[in-house]
Amino acid sequence: MGGWAIAVHGGAGVDPNLPKERQEEAKRLLRRCLDIGISALHSNIPAIDVVELVVRELETDPLFNSGRGSVLTENGTVEMEASIMDGPKRRCGAVSGLTTVKNPISLARLVMDKSPHSYLAFSGAEEFAEKQGVELVDNEYFITENNVAMLKLAKEANSIVFDYRIPAPGTVGCVVVDKEGRCAAATSTGGLMNKMRGRIGDSPLIGCGTYACELCGVSCTGEGEAIIRSTLAREVAAVMEYKGLNLHEAVDFVIRNRLDEGKAGLISVSKKGEVACGFNTTGMFRGCATEDGFMELGIW
Amino acid sequence: MGWAIALHGGAGDIPLSLPPERRLPREAALRHCLGIGIAAFKAHKHPLDVAELVVRELENHPNFNAGRGSVLTNSGTVEMEACIMDGKTKKCGAVSGLTTVVNAISLARLVMEKTPHIYLAFEGAEAFAREQGLETVDSSYFITPENIERLKQAQEAHRVQIDYTQPVQKEVKNGAANADGDSQIGTVGCVAVDSEGNLATATSTGGLVNKMLGRIGDTPIIGAGTYANHLCAVSATGRGEAIIRGTVARDVAAVMEFKGLSLKEAAAYVVDQVPRGTTGLVAVSSTGEVAMPFNTTGMFRACATEDGYSEIAIWDSPSK
Q1: Is residue A73 among the annotated active site residues?
Q2: Is B121 in Cβ contact with A122 (below 8 Å)?
């Protein structure tokens, strides 16, 4: 036990008919992100920096539902949110309602490091972004053809899309524990396809979609409403803290018992260098690796 | 076991020397709101209705940091947020960034009941309020002279305050500054349980004095400032950033469940874990217990149970 560990995810709830090429594409991206994270860990970069680095990569790639490639609101625009948490002192930062910030996770980091607050949203967040000099782009930059088509489908079916009947890409996240045993977690998303303007999901809510403390780091994905009601990310840590379960037992317990009818997944690491993923959806795009050379990419 | 209700008007560095003209109206307001809650229970209203009713009343009172009387952002505007949760179903609703909605808590309830979502904010939330025909007014309605003064003081001191330093006397301001530089009162909330153990919680706030535009605190974050499940209902108040990190509301229930503590023990334990001077909460359990711990100088609070017990307090009291 001990040593670093890293896990990444690209969303829970996968279309069982997803074409092979898309599956391979997803795995390649996850692999690339793992490699970026592993390389950083080899250079002794702290967990909090590694999670940000990796999530930036996931945001920049249009494949998953974050940054570029975010799903669209009912108005056809993009509103992004993200959060990041540093285990050792449980410092955290979160953002919502971003429309021009190229990398939401980095703005969340700045909220944590450079503001007196933990959470900034909508035009206040955009204003902060401008003052911080982060890279800003037009809203169109984030919009992909795939998502425009999917929004059309969703409107025709008159639904907000989570389930794979109208397959939509998922949230992204990364959890890391570094060699010093410091845990960190980061999550980023465009939210729900066809969501109401102003809708906030679980990803920016500390304790729901993201959580990190001395014991572990957790990032969740899936039905936002279910993740919020079950305060999923905090639940994993609470069960470890108050029930004394280890990471695997905690993840298992929480996925099995805390989601009720909700569908979700999560990735987590513990300060002991363990990594665990769990989901009750049909699949979750994920990858994990530990210092002793273990590496795994998975969808189902 | 009968019904139980507890409510708060904010925890913080409420100076013991709070002059009567500032103390009495708040005590009266607490008494009034408690009375409304008690009457609602006597009329057999569901805890969710009771909690919403009481918080609406607290929002309407200009002396507390919610609705009218909300503290101001660094731009002198108001951005309100609120959250409501039903313990039995764990259904919840939250709103942030409201500028014209008279009763934020009622909008949170509508989000919970009339949308497929849990949380709506800023323009999207305001648009939804209009669609739903909720009462909206000009933003100036919410702004009180006391809060304009508080903002001025905070900006002069370059501080973000949780709220409620005395805007008038210099010596009181210094007193507050001595007690770690922030005075920390803000937010209103109500928790309620009926005789069948159905639980509900509701919290509402204007946030932090001199906060950045777009700043969201603990109140609308499920598990941080607000939480209810089958065991208990919790509404927290104090330094938002600390309550978020401490997942305060969720932890009370978690500690009850996983460590088998009573509500009072669990609530005291959790408040103890958060930095001194940052947090207070009110909570009720499915068995009718009430707890109102705080690690600040004081917390405006009140509670009542069906057997006739009632309490209104600001500073330490034996039955904390």
Answers
A1: no
A2: yes
